[in-house]
Each structure stands twice: as C-alpha cells, then as structure tokens.
UniProtKB/TrEMBL annotation:
SUPFAM superfamilies tied to this protein: MIR domain
Domain MIR: 32-86, 94-149, 150-204
InterPro entries: MIR_dom_sf, MIR_motif
Gene Ontology cellular component terms for the protein in this record: endoplasmic reticulum; extracellular region; protein-containing complex
Organism: Chloropsis cyanopogon
Record keywords, A-Z: Repeat, Signal
Signal peptide, first to last residue: 1-27
Pfam families: MIR (PF02815)
CDD domains assigned to the protein according to its UniProt record, in alphabetical order: beta-trefoil_MIR_SDF2_meta
Domain of life: Eukaryota
Subcellular location: Secreted
Protein name: SDF2L protein
The encoding gene: Sdf2l1
Length: 219
C-alpha cells in the first residue's frame, strides 16, 4: 500500500461471473480464448483436481510466510488469483499472455504474490511455495514463466508454471495437511516437469483480449 491507497482494486468476489465477460474492446482480437493480463481466475491442478488456494494461515516451519495449498472445493473465494506482469507496464490489462512470458499471480483476498524460495516444504520436503508481499508488491522471487505449446496461454490449455529464480515447477503430489487446514493439499516446487505440474484456468473474470489494451474500457 502506498499513500494509504491500494495499488489495484479488489473485485467483489460475490459478483465474479463464471464465464467470459463481454467487455468492450477495440481492434482485432488475436486470441479470443486467451488468458489475459488483469484477469482474475482459479487454477486447477489437472492431476489431483484441486484448485490453487491461499489464506491467512502461516507455515509453522520453513519461511513462516502465508501458506499456499490446494483445495477440492470449486466455490472457495480464497482460490482467486489475478494475472499480472513482472511490472504493471509489462502486462497491460487485456493483453493476451504469451507462452514463455513471466507473470505474477497475486492472491486477490490477501494481496500477496505466489512465491517460492529455498525452504523445504513441510510435508514432502520439496521446495516450499508461499504467498508473499503486501498489496501486490513483493520481490524477484514472485515471477513465474508460463509454459505452453502455442503462441498464447489459452483457457483450454493445461500449462506449467516454472519459477524464474529457482527453476522449479509449481506442483502438487497429493500430501494432505491436518489441523487447522485438514484435507488441503500441499503445493510445492519440483525440479522436474511431470504430470503433477499441469494447471488449467477455471472460474473467474476473463478480460476480453485486445491488441490495443490502452483503449480497453474499464469494467
């Protein structure tokens, strides 16, 4: 927070639709099904059928930062993440996210970024994944490369997220927590690309793609 003001607005979660918004755009649409900068979405791990999640519960070991888990429920408001660039100018609202592009995933309800670092994860002893920062601003360990096969990250694609700083992949292998987050799955970083680190865009607000995001009407 700077000057007592949030750096970006949080959308009321009760108003989030589950389909593409018919937002007004100008110019050609290069990828109608692309995930775009500024979109708010949930991410489903395709192997374990759980959504990427965070909450105001800190790890009791490792970094002690805000924990990141996987949950089975599709309607949990703590599973929304906002797509942002390495800087706000590098990922303007409405711009399709390219395969190979570095992004930040900002947790909507707490304003912290998806983050990893050289701490062991509490259950599997892989690399800990946490949520870090304040009001969307953290550090260089918040950057993830979107790995996909085409030009753009398409909503129907299963993609991987490779961490820029440590080169691990955002993964789930099925370990479950006990109290106080019983049944939630451990999210961690793994060095190898495999079937545990595929993710698919699910519910959310998807900003309609535009090649000219500067002219994109505000919601």
């Amino acid at each position: 927070m700077r000057g007592g003001r949030r750096l970006f607005p949080l959308l009321p979660l009760a108003l989030l639709p589950l389909a593409l918004l018919p937002g007004l755009c100008h110019g050609r649409e290069p990828a109608p099904g692309a995930v775009t900068c500024g979109s708010v979405l949930k991410l489903l791990n395709t192997r374990h059928s759980v959504r990427l999640h965070s909450h105001e519960v800190k790890y009791g070991s490792g970094s002690g930062q805000q924990s990141v888990t996987g949950v089975e429920a599709s309607d949990d408001a703590n599973s929304y993440w906002r797509i942002r660039g390495k800087s706000d100018n590098s990922c303007q609202r409405g711009t399709p996210v390219k395969c190979g592009q570095a992004i930040r995933l900002t947790h909507v309800n707490t304003g912290k970024n998806l983050h990893t670092h050289h701490f062991p994860s509490p259950l599997s002893n892989n690399q800990e994944v946490s949520a870090f920062g304040d009001d969307g601003e953290g550090d260089d360990l918040d950057f993830w490369i979107v790995q996909c096969s085409g030009t753009y990250w398409e909503r129907e694609d299963a993609v991987r997220f490779r961490h820029v700083g440590t080169e691990v992949f955002l993964s789930i292998t099925g370990e479950q927590y006990g109290h106080p987050i019983r049944g939630q799955r451990e999210v961690h970083g793994m060095p190898a690309a495999n079937h545990h680190n595929y993710w698919k865009a699910m519910e959310g607000v998807f900003i309609k793609p535009s090649l000219d995001p500067a002219k994109h009407d505000e919601l």
